[in-house]
């Protein structure tokens, strides 16, 4: 059995980005940019009006002759002399000689004669060529998480594809003959499967939408075959349950029979002691405890960092911070404790219902309070480290 810090050190060795692929910008929401984008154009690509109004050469005069009109999208370049103005609209090209645009609300017009009632400062309402970005400048750095604004910016540069890190394919193997799918009728001795839903949605929050869920019968041959099949499909396999030492826990043997190399098994933590991690030909396998709270706790601490790293995130661990404990928190187990808690106004409160089978407290927790294995007690008012869940 290894410590939490040792387990995390092992995990760090596998926190590597996936291969780089090129995808249409409509398909990259939430993905991470794998290569810096160099702007191919100036933005805006011409001197541009930011208002509906009149463009003119600023010379401290307020009366002008209107000699033309430029709409958004027009390619013409009206030549202006001093004392002349052109009607112009938002987004339109400002004539080369013009340096200022006056809002139409600040003018009056009779025929072709324009009077400016409130003279703006020189350069007002004109967006310079390349104001947002110039040709050859870095538009977005490698490692940028692509949200809708970033993708819109890329579209404005005229780029239809970008290079991103490929999403991993993930499969979830659910073991346990006692488990029934949601919506089915429970018989005596059965419970509903929540782990497949919880893990699938946790992956979905990371942008992983290609997830295969397989229910496995509690026999060695079924377990061995399911693992073999998923090693052919997935980059990351999550096995739920069957990793302890019961008569019907066949996962560890099934992994060994499929030549999955063990990296570590059992971590000195509560919940989640019977955690198994291994790899085969760059395929990663996490055998998670079957108890729902244990499974989710292990996901946050060990699986999530690997998935985020594969997606190209630089900061792939959930953020940590500290708060003051609102009550005494004892550790009589000599294990690292991950306790569901509420953090509010710098105060950390341990919730009731910490059993590894209980998801109810997880449902309202916004942090996991961490008590190290060598700490027997954190007293009320002392600092406690926590993992931010929301």
From TrEMBL:
Its EC number is 2.10.1.1. InterPro entries: MoaB/Mog-like_dom_sf, MoaB/Mog_dom, MoCF_biosynth_CS, MoeA-like, MoeA_C_domain_IV, MoeA_C_domain_IV_sf, MoeA_linker/N, MoeA_linker/N_sf. Pathway: Cofactor biosynthesis; molybdopterin biosynthesis. Its cofactor is Mg(2+). GO terms for biological process: Mo-molybdopterin cofactor biosynthetic process. Residues 171-309 form the MoaB/Mog domain. Keywords: Magnesium, Metal-binding, Molybdenum, Molybdenum cofactor biosynthesis, Transferase. Gene3D superfamilies: MoaB/Mog-like domain, MoeA, C-terminal, domain IV, Molybdopterin biosynthesis moea protein, domain 2, Molybdopterin biosynthesis moea protein, domain 3. It catalyses: adenylyl-molybdopterin + molybdate = Mo-molybdopterin + AMP + H(+). The keyword 4Fe-4S does not apply. It comes from the Bacteria. GO terms for cellular component: cytosol. Pfam families: MoCF_biosynth, MoeA_C, MoeA_N. GO terms for molecular function: metal ion binding; molybdopterin molybdotransferase activity. Catalyzes the insertion of molybdate into adenylated molybdopterin with the concomitant release of AMP. Belongs to the MoeA family. This is Molybdopterin molybdenumtransferase. It comes from Tenacibaculum jejuense. The lineage of its organism: Bacteria, Pseudomonadati, Bacteroidota, Flavobacteriia, Flavobacteriales.
């Amino acid at each position: 059995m290894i410590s939490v810090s040792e387990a995390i050190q092992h995990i760090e060795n596998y926190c590597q980005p996936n291969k780089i692929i090129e995808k249409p910008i409509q398909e990259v929401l939430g993905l991470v940019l794998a290569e810096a984008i160099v702007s191919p154009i100036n933005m805006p690509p011409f001197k541009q009006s930011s208002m509906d109004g009149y463009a003119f050469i600023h010379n401290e005069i307020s009366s002008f002759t209107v000699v033309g009109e430029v709409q958004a999208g027009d390619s013409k370049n009206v030549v202006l002399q001093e004392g002349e103005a052109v009607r112009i609209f938002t987004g339109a090209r400002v004539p080369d000689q013009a340096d200022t645009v006056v809002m139409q609300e600040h003018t009056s017009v009779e025929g072709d004669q324009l009077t400016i009632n409130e003279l703006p400062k020189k350069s007002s309402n004109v967006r310079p060529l390349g104001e947002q970005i110039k040709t050859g400048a870095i538009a977005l750095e490698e490692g940028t998480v692509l949200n809708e604004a970033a993708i819109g910016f890329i579209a404005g540069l005229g780029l239809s594809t970008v290079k991103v890190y490929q999403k991993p394919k993930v499969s979830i193997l659910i073991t346990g003959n006692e488990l029934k799918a949601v919506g089915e009728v429970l018989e005596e001795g059965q419970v509903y499967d929540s782990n497949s839903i919880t893990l699938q949605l946790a992956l979905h929050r990371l942008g992983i939408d290609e997830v295969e869920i397989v229910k496995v019968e509690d026999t060695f041959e079924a377990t061995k075959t399911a693992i073999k099949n998923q090693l052919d499909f997935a980059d990351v396999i999550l096995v739920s349950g069957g990793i302890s030492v019961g008569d019907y826990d066949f996962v560890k043997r099934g992994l060994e029979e499929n030549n999955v190399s063990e990296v570590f098994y059992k971590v000195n933590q509560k919940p989640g002691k019977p955690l198994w991690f291994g790899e085969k030909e760059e395929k990663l396998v996490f055998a998670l405890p079957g108890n729902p709270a244990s499974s989710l706790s292990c996901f946050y601490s060990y699986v999530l960092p690997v998935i985020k790293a594969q997606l190209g995130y630089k900061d792939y661990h959930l953020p940590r911070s500290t708060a003051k404990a609102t009550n005494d928190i004892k550790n009589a187990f000599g294990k690292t404790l991950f306790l569901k808690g509420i953090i509010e106004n710098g105060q950390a409160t341990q919730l009731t219902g910490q059993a590894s089978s209980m998801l109810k407290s997880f449902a309202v927790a916004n942090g996991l309070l961490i008590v190290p294995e060598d700490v027997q007690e954190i007293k009320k008012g002392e600092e406690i480290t926590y993992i931010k869940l929301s």
